[in-house]
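Sample pair:
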Amino acid sequence: MKSPLLVIGAPRSGTTLLFETLARSGELWSIPGESHRIIEAIPRLRPFANGKDSNRLTAEDLDAAIAQTLTARFIRAARDNKGRRLTNLPEEDRPCAIRLLEKTPKNCLRVPFFRALFPDCRFIFIHREPLANIASIIEGWQSGRYVSYRRLPGWEGPWSYLLPPGWRALANRPLAEIATFQWKTANACAIADLRGLPPGSWCSVGYSDLVRDPARQIERLCRFADLPFDERLRTATSNELPHSRSTLTPPGENKLRKRQKELEAFRLEVAELAAELEQMHLLDG
């Protein structure tokens, strides 16, 4: 496997939209859905194994056996942009090595782990205006479509999206507070870990920039990733991007306006981190 490309971002930040757009490339292979089952099928990588209490993984959680297993599983599950598995291609059409495109919001908490697993991987970090993002996380919780854990110790009911360190303190707290904590932890952890990587290892993109000018942003990301801005990508970004498969209701001001009072109390709490995100383009690795 050569130079995997990992899209990371908080839940509901636009990771699926970005992934679906990039996956049109003839150079990339991707797995259907997200990597939850591939990673958490390994008992040592699940929450509550070996003293872990969240989805956080670092280089210390990787050994040679796990690396070999994960790499083989990613390759086995990968498909090209026509939906074909590597093993289903005629031998003469099989590439010597594939380039994986992967996106899973939980991986905001796993940057050091993936860097150890794939030393030549590159990260694309997408971020979104905080209150709109948090409103969408709340909507996802309420939909029941994004349950990640049916039962957690000391927690009443199912849990949706990533499980951040410190989640136990959220027991019996309002959903808006839980969603805000998920947004803050995902972004803060990603920023801290990405800043520790060598130059050229990561790039960032704002969700609003992607939606407003998809051709310019995808071409910029292709340059970063040493990926051709091919005809399929040009066509895909020549008009407004379609809603991603994970869209619950169309984005818009009305969506946020419905939760304005509920979320206003968190505006100051997220302001400092929001300012850091605005600076991410200047800090691109």
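Strands lie at 5-8, 29-30, 100-103, 122-127, 147-149, 159-160, 202-206.
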